[in-house]
Fold this sequence. Notes:
The structure holds 2 protein chains of 2 kinds. In chain A, 51% of the residues lie in helices and 15% in strands. By secondary structure, chain A is an alpha/beta fold. Chain A has a 7-stranded parallel sheet with strand order 3-2-1-4-5-6-7, with helices on both faces. In chain A, α1 crosses α7 and α5 (100-128) runs parallel beside α6 (149-170). The termini of chain A are far apart. In chain B, 25% of the residues lie in helices and 25% in strands. Chain B has 12 helices and 22 strands. Chain B is globular. Chain B is α+β, with helices and mostly antiparallel strands. The A-B interface holds A 36-37, 40-41, 43-44, 47-49, 187, 190 and B 17, 19-22, 59, 62-66, 73, 87.
Amino acid sequence: MRRILIVGATSAIAQAAARVWAVRGEALYLVGRDPVRLESIAADLAVRGAARVDHAAMDATDLAAHAAVIERAAASLGGLDTALIAHGTLSDQAACQESVAQTLAEINVNGLAVVALLSVLANRFEQQRSGTIAVISSVAGDRGRGSNYVYGSAKALVSAFASGLRQRLHRAGVAVVTLKPGFVDTPMTAAFRKGPLWAQPSRVAAGLVRAIDRGTPVAYLPWFWRPAMFLVRAIPERWFRTLKL
Amino acid sequence: MVSSWGNLIRAEHELRRLTSRHADFPELPARRSVLPFGNGRSYGDSCLNVGGALLEMRALDRFIAFDRNAGVITCEAGLLLDELLEVTVPAGWFVPVTPGTRFVTVGGAIANDVHGKNHHVAGTFGRHVRRFELLRSTGARLTCSPTENPEWFAVTIGGLGLTGVITWAEIQLRPIATPWLEVETIRFGGLAEFFELCAQSDRDWEHTVAWIDCTRSPGSGLGRGLLQRANHLEREPPGQAAAAPRASAPHLKVPFVPPVSLVNGPTLRAFNSFYYHRQRASREKTLQHYQRFFYPLDGILNWNRLYGARGFYQYQCVVPLAAGREAVAALLEHVAASGQGSFLAVLKLFGAVLSPGMLSFPMEGVTLALDFPNRGAKLARLLAHLDELVAEAGGRLYPAKDARMPGSLFRSGYPRWREFVPFIDPRHSSSFWRRVMAAA
């Protein structure tokens, strides 16, 4: 039985991953904003077989609350083996362009709040010298694109931060897993037209769980985003700037 | 674009999604009606709302509670029976009633008051629903049970999603000792034999169903077929555990829609003959895993595509027992004479257990289910003939499988429709409902 903390547990991808873990009989601690939804997700996971499910309400941007909530999770589960940071919002690029405050708010929730959580978790895991810290970044963080560079740059911060953390914690025997989903059909993306590149949360979650099991440093979900983003990154900036992406 | 299982209609719908059972009734575009949409396994237009909105329910797929001692499960309405069984079967509980596919939602099973091979003992799905919540477009939430809001309970079971949105339900499961069934398959030469066999079997067997070769004309084996009867095994059969299907995912799929139906005259006759003769003995006993016994077609993903781009019609009727023998014989003769035989014609006796829904399909009698590739006017003429026979016998058709019955046949088959109308949610409607209510 593994003891798993999930921040952003009401997100569709996190929920799907938690179900896989529940069926395996792991113990789970769910953190999210909405206590009513946490309650119903916890009940669901308990029926599906989780050894134990507890939850706490927290807004990820409330940086001062992070340490205490992580402490409570560890106390409740009797320690932590895995932590998954999955919270996020999909920024409205047009609105961000109109408002500095909106831009910074998006960077704050998708970037800074994640960095803050990673920092607290890193010290705890480094001390216990075991475990896996996983974080959901995005293919959008691989290169800034005109259509959503606010969200993308926050995710780029997360990817770079996790990369450095991976080097640092490698010596302590702690794995850091960066998860990079592409387009996922979730409530967050409900407004988008879905094409063949879109994946269901359950498929993404299966890959996520596998990556965490194996300690894969960087996992693209589904896999085809790895070669796709390799190509996107290879385009010279001189041409890239003329593209509508 | 949304279509139903019969692939007869593909139409643009305004889509809304319910992602939490605590969420408010969603905002709708002005003057658009709405219909809850589960997994789209209804065959015709009862799950569609062309020109209006659909409320996608699949995201409501959470369990709420499971009493493993009493076998009572509470879950959200968008959960598939497949997902439910994955949790309950290892704990020794099975759905009390199951249709021929496990890829239907709990809400859909209630809204169509589905039946299964055990109707003669268990009645319909709705009989085992202890409670559910109905969310109306006004925002009102009604907990419905046989004792609480009983009138809403009765109109929502079999209510085709028209009375509001079912958000969660509590169901009494049936205990099972193993996932296995003992199955006897018996060959019979005609309808008289079928009725006799059924009467015998229904006493000692929980599940009975017959398959009929409907390509045979009178004089050359009209009504010949195979009767299957089965009981859940009381003890784990030795050596079978390893033979259980490992995953619930289908292993085969039909990857694309062929331009013409692969189900046609020659393949039908060949298949039906092969099927009839597939066992050498006139009686065979086997052990079957529940997935194979209850859901043989679920093993082939998108089998509906075999019927080609024009889609297919299902025709399922029930006729009261008194008129049953003659009516079924007449129906089969018509089908055989038309040369438009059906791939799998299924015949079953419904028992006397009353259905709880005001518009539930099952009643005591004989039910016959047929499917036909869409052949346009030629098929329409045949089905119109069948309609007359069903109406004469005092029978009715199953809305979940229908895409074409005349409104008059619906209204004569479901005389309580007038009582039902005042309960329809002011924002709800469906393509089916508008069709059968036209000129009412």
